[in-house]
Amino acid sequence: MALVARPAMAQQILRDAETEAFLADASAPLVQAAGLAPGNVQVLLINDPEINAFVAGGQIVWIHSGLFTAADNLNQVQGVVAHELGHIEGGHIIRSGEGMKAATGITLLSLVLGAAVMAAGGGEAGMGVMAAGQQAAMGKYLAFSRTQEASADAAGARYLSKAGISGKGSIAFMQKLQNLEYRLAIPQDDGYARTHPLTGERIAIMREAYEPDAAWNAKTPPEMEARFQRIKAKLFGFVSDPQQTLRIYPESDQTIPAHYARAYAWHKSAYPDKALAETDALLRAAPHDPYFLELRGQVLLESGRPADAIPPLREAVRTTGSQPLIAVLLGHALIATEDPKNFAEAEAVLRSAVNKDRENPFAWYQLGVIYEHRGDMPRAALATAESRAMMGDYPVALRSAEAAMAGLKEGTTDYLRAQDIAMVARSELDATKKKKKGK
Questions:
Q1: Which of 142-151, 280-289, 346-355 has the lowest mean pLDDT?
Q2: Cβ-contact 172, 71 below 8 angstroms
Q3: In 16-150, which ranges are E strands?
Q4: What local confidence, expressed as pLDDT, does residue 302 receive?
């Protein structure tokens, strides 16, 4: 499990092979029910303690870590995913511009009318027209947003029904949100000042849709629920304060999820022996589980024992068919030994990783280390350009891409890739300059 910072997001993306595989499996029947292509839809986690989820461009559902750890079971998370898929299928991200356009039109009209009234000598009346116009514009946009949310609720209900998944989790999670609103003293009687319909109204409508449905009493497959509980514990251990993790998952708890959570808590607290003891317990239960092996390798690597990390990571890579996130960890361990004999294997696993998943800046950084070590400076520069472009560092990306082009044969695949990065970086830098001049 690792954090990847992206400039376009205030939060950090949580990349984890086991979690991403699980979310793909858990959402697959809902994606199919929504009539979307499974290969085009992703469900990913971001590191944010708020209970929230959203869609932001493309076909990616972003789930906050706070929502995942607050959910009691997989069925609740599936209800959230179904709702967000409703936004994707309904094209709400694209259509949100319509709501903004209508609201902006009202605002501009009120400003023109207000200015005319003020010019005629009615200063206070003119200000009143402007204020009323802005209030009307906000009301227009909020009404548009509430309509979209109600539409996504209805769509989510259809997807759950078609996939044979119970809506009990959706209602239970809404009730959880309602209880949170009560604790925070959020008003429950003014639906016009909200982006979403009132939670109580949503629950009532959901009951009408879900309770008569044939899938109402459907059960989550035990294997999927077990996967959810262990990933929830793993995530909690990764994002939470270690002391909080140890309170929620005390050492008296000898379940798989508890061992998982404590392994991260002890590792974060710099107690590698205790963390390794927890991974030993996990591997006694499932000696060839690739994700338990991955965790053991991560603890060993980050505790300064890269050579010891290589065997479990090799097995994890082998048993997952060279899963790219795990392969990058193996490549890191091989390089960290500082033994040149390991560098050829490191290059092979890292090249395989970026061929499957190019969106990993750390993988490109590690490849750059390999290229620099063997004196291939143009490809080292290209790897740096790839990494820095993904992180939004366009000045360095541009310089590195130009350095790569200077040493690569024109027309080759690597040369063309460096050229593409340079063009994108220049475009981003020019756009930034224009924005600054506009201010």
A1: 142-151
A2: no
A3: 42-47, 53-55, 60-64
A4: 96
Q: What are phi and psi of 129, to 5 degrees?
A: -60, -45
Within 13 Å of residue 386, how many CA atoms lie on the same side as its CB?
24
Q: Which residue has the tokens 């400039």?
A: 7
Among 111, 216, 213, 99, CA closest to 146: 99
Strand-strand pairing, 42-47 and 60-64: parallel
Cβ 175 vs Cβ 71: under 8 Å: no
CA 263 to CA 268: how far, in whole Å?
Answer: 9
- The string of pLDDT tens digits covering residues 303-325 is 999 999 999 999 999 999 999 99
Please tell me the total number of residues recorded for the chain in this structure: 439
* Mean predicted lDDT score pLDDT of the chain: 84
The string of pLDDT tens digits covering residues 25-67 is: 999 999 999 999 888 899 999 999 988 888 876 788 999 999 9
Task: Kindly list the distances between the CA atom of residue 281 and the CA atoms of 106, 214, 237, 239, 259, in Å, as whole numbers in the listed order.
Answer: 63, 41, 16, 22, 7
What tokens were used for 393? Answer: 């560092």
Nearest residue to 179 via CA among 199, 153, 149, 195: 199
CB 311, CB 321: distance < 8 Å: no
Q: Which tokens is 14 given?
A: 């949580």
- Give the pLDDT of residue 138: 43
- Report yes or no: 30 and 81 within 8 Å, Cβ to Cβ: yes
- Dihedrals φ, ψ of 49, to 5°? -75, -10
Closest-CA residue to 405 (of 429, 385, 425, 375): 385
For 65, 150, 195, 325, 388, the CA distances from 362, given in Å and listed in that order, are: 22, 40, 38, 10, 10
**Is the predicted pLDDT of residue 185 greater than 70, yes or no?**
no
d(CA 345, CA 350): 9
Backbone angles phi, psi at 215, to 5 degrees: -90, 5
